[in-house]
Amino acid sequence: MPIEQFIIFFLLLLTGYFCKKYGIFNDAAINAINKFIVVIGYPCLILGRTVTLEMEHSIFINFLISLFLNVGLLLAFGAYARLYCRGKRFPDADKRVTEFAIMSPNNGFMGFPVAYTIFGSLGLLYMIGANIALNVVFFTYGIALFDRGRNVSGETVGKKFLKGLKTFAHPGIIAAFAGIVICYNRIQLPEIASGYLDLVGAVTIPVAMISIGTMLAGGFGLKSFKKSLVMDPVLNKLFVVPVITVIIIWFIPLDPLVKTIIIVSNAMPVATMVPIFSEQYGHNKSYASEMVVISTLFSMITIPVAVWILPNLGL
């Protein structure tokens, strides 16, 4: 279990925390960084890691199963999260952030090293499929979720429909499917293009962690562990969602490794994109950041336990 990855995660958070605390980054700089991450950074990361894969037909089919099955699961978790928030009567201002946090696993920064270290390169490949699924949901359902209930003057039904279609033209979606096409057809990118994607992708993950750390300045402490508004969604994300995943895929005839990766993917802590989206759409970014940090802290226990239990489930 790569504990070092978790330590690096918190060191990057601390870097961002102190950058904001001591005025190295102001609000305008943080907003610009977040736009870079969403529009340029993550698309380059997705494309750069996908186009270098090599896969046989059967492996590619399993890759697609991991991708599309995870899309369905994430949407199912979105429906569960919405019902949960209604039942718990969360404040209207925090409902969207809570829903997004419960359904969104950090299967990129956390998922990639765990999958590769424990399950090898094939496990990493299937985790990338799960991560592409997450990005598809991020830039479609996620945008629609944060946009829900916003009344824009003069916006007709037709304009809303066109606005929904435009979400599929987001760089994150384009990068995901372009990467699949390039990889499957074994198209060789020019060295300059692949070098650029690698460099931008390598920068994106630490920059995202630092950005989240800036959101914690003044908004996170031991008191966060006493807030049911924070702890209830975290417990749902780390315990309820993985159990639902196991129940759903238990009887589906899939490759055991695909099943395992799908479960491990959805057992990851709250995704780092949740506070970034919250900041971009004017929601409670400090609340979202608290859930990311606390769920990641707890995942240092839950992920090793999940990986240890899964081989005994007969998957």
Topology:
Blueprint: H1 3-21, H2 27-50, H3 57-88, H4 92-103, H5 111-147, H6 157-166, H7 171-184, H8 191-216, H9 228-249, H10 256-266, H11 273-280, H12 285-309
Distance between the termini: 20 Å
- Helix content percent band: over 70%
User: What is the name of the CATH topology?
Assistant: Na+/H+ antiporter like fold
- Give helix and strand order, one letter per element, not per position: HHHHHHHHHHHH
| Unreliably modeled segments | none
The biggest beta sheet, please?
none
Task: Kindly provide the name of the CATH class.
Answer: Mainly Alpha
CATH architecture: Up-down Bundle
Tally of helical segments: 12
Q: What is the gist of this entry?
A:
The protein is mostly helical and 315 residues long. It has twelve helices and no strands.
Your description of this structure?
The chain is an all-alpha fold and about 325 residues long. It has a single domain, classed as Na+/H+ antiporter like fold (Up-down Bundle). The chain is about 75% helix and about 0% strand. It is built from twelve helices and no strands. Helix 9 packs antiparallel against helix 10 (about 255-265). The mean pLDDT is about 80.
Keywords:
single chain, mainly alpha, Na+/H+ antiporter like fold, 12 helices, 76% helix
